[in-house]
Design goal:
By secondary structure, this protein is α/β, with parallel strands linked by helices. The chain has helices at 12-24, 42-54, 69-75, 89-99, 113-125, 132-143; strands at 2-7, 28-31, 60-65, 83-85, 103-107. It has a 5-stranded parallel beta sheet with strand order 2-1-3-5-4, sandwiched between helices. The chain is globular.
Length: 148
């Protein structure tokens, strides 16, 4: 599996911790930045990870910012991206199983690294269940056609 990861300045430390964990698990990681706590604009980094997934260069992505909210809003503007802000293990599992999320968004200022790593683990281990959830994910895709 190849995973794309990025952050803004508010999620830098969390991204570094998550990246280290992923590499220790033998997961190939492409780091799209940022590479310091210097202020940057989060939509630029959400775009890089989203484009990597849509182009098939990465299977999944993780985005970190202060709360995860800004990254998720930006990433969800990209057709085909289903980004979820997650702050607990149950939601991490559910968003993969039910929503087939392809980007996990985490907030450094609201989620400690220990919990974040448990969330990442649950998200990566979960698989999309399909079935009745498939038509709902397809309906999400249909919404991408509105006002475009």
């Amino acid at each position: 599996m190849k995973l794309a990861i990025a952050c803004d300045h508010g999620g830098f430390s969390l991204k570094e911790g998550v990246k280290k964990y992923l590499l220790e698990q033998g997961i190939e990681v492409e780091d799209f930045g940022c590479y310091s706590r210097e202020s940057v604009d989060f939509p630029d980094y959400a775009k890089k990870v989203g484009e990597s997934i849509i182009a098939g260069q990465s299977e999944l992505g993780i985005l970190c910012c202060g709360t995860g909210i800004g990254m998720s809003i930006a990433a969800n503007k990209i057709n085909g991206i289903r980004a979820a802000v997650v702050g607990d293990v149950f939601s991490a599992k559910a968003t993969r199983e039910h929503n087939n999320s392809n980007i996990l968004c985490l907030g450094e200022r609201v989620t400690g690294e220990g919990l974040a790593l448990l969330i990442v683990e649950a998200w990566l281990q979960a698989e999309f269940l399909g079935g009745r959830h498939e038509r709902r994910v397809e309906a999400i895709g249909e919404l991408e056609k509105y006002l475009c």
